[in-house]
Amino acid sequence: MAISPGTWKVSGTREVYSDALPRENCVIAEVLDGSDEDATLIATAPNLLAALKELVHYDEGSSEQGSYGYEVLRRCKSAIAKAEGRSQ
After folding, report:
1. How confident is the model at residue 31, as a pLDDT?
2. Residues 6 or more apart from 30 whose CB is under 8 A from it?
3. Which among 44, 23, 42, 25 is positioned nearest to 34, based on CA atoms?
4. What is the arithmetic mean of pLDDT over 24-35?
5. Would you say residue 2 has pLDDT above 70?
6. Among residues 26, 47, 29, which one has the least CA distance to residue 38?
7. Cα 51 vs. chain centroid, distance in angstroms?
8. Contact (Cβ atoms closer than 8 angstroms) between residue 88 and residue 78
9. Mean of the per-residue pLDDT values for the chain?
10. Residues 50, 8: contact at Cβ < 8 Å?
11. Strands (E), 1-83
12. Of 19, 52, 80, 85, which residue has the fewest beta carbons closer than 10 angstroms?
């Protein structure tokens, strides 16, 4: 699954769009029933995914099974898999 390029931003109408593509052609999401925070969360998704991937790569192998760190790492991997459209 490819993520739209560029930084995702929120317009005043709660449309989430990529600043790397012509806006009229690339509305990623439109929050119709929700808050500005919902639109901001969607716009931040690519950054959150990148941070999780970096964390997993950095912490890989340093947490022992059964530890709190291991459980957090497992949940991060699960979230990454879900975001990429695959199951874990």
Report:
1. 92
2. 13, 14, 15, 16
3. 42
4. 83
5. no
6. 29
7. 9
8. yes
9. 83
10. no
11. 8-10, 15-18, 27-30
12. 85
